[in-house]
Amino acid sequence: MGWVGPQRPWLYLVTDRGCMGGRPLAEVVLAAVQGGVRCVQLREKHLPLADFVAMARALKAWLAPTGVPLVINDNIDVALACEAHGVHLGQSDTPVHLARKQLPPDVFIGLSIETMADLHAVPAGCVDYLGVSPIFATPTKTDTRTVWGLDGLRTARALTTLPLVAIGGIHADNVHAVQEAGADGIAVVSAICAASDPCQAAKNLLA
């Protein structure tokens, strides 16, 4: 518990192979890390379990020399199998208090919150950071209940001491405003995965 990002704002990449234009996962992720990404979440909604585990193990090995932690989206079994550094859970996934019991104590847990009610319901002592989702409307996540906006992010910041990772529609033109509204971390999907130069895209976000 108590995980914190290596810098503020942390630049956090959530993978989406569907918008990588056929490029290998390793190529895009490692270029993004070279550009300044400091946390990588592997999100695979449709892979069979064995393939998900194999991909996670390979990605963890690629990231090992960089010191960048690997987070697994949704799947605790995959996280355990590949010895991931963290797990990110949504509101419909394994409840975080149960996940905390299943995972080693050094594995950190992130939880997506989509409403103020979700924020108020976060159990004490189980979560290391909150993913505030989405800040702006985005085609990469269409199943959310609300859009937070900058004012919603400011309100969330005032109500919790947990680190907040903002995601959803964030790009180089609005990232500063998101940081100013209280985000400790900035998570992006297509802004890096779909970029022709993921390294430069990461640098632009951090600049």
From TrEMBL:
Cofactor: Mg(2+)
GO annotation, biological process: thiamine biosynthetic process; thiamine diphosphate biosynthetic process
Catalytic activity: 2-[(2R,5Z)-2-carboxy-4-methylthiazol-5(2H)-ylidene]ethyl phosphate + 4-amino-2-methyl-5-(diphosphooxymethyl)pyrimidine + 2 H(+) = thiamine phosphate + CO2 + diphosphate; 2-(2-carboxy-4-methylthiazol-5-yl)ethyl phosphate + 4-amino-2-methyl-5-(diphosphooxymethyl)pyrimidine + 2 H(+) = thiamine phosphate + CO2 + diphosphate; 4-methyl-5-(2-phosphooxyethyl)-thiazole + 4-amino-2-methyl-5-(diphosphooxymethyl)pyrimidine + H(+) = thiamine phosphate + diphosphate
Binding-site positions, 2-[(2R,5Z)-2-carboxy-4-methylthiazol-5(2H)-ylidene]ethyl phosphate: T138, P139, T140, G169, V189, S190
GO terms of molecular function: magnesium ion binding; thiamine-phosphate diphosphorylase activity
NCBIfam families referenced in this protein's UniProt entry, alphabetically: thiE
Protein name (Swiss-Prot/TrEMBL): Thiamine-phosphate synthase
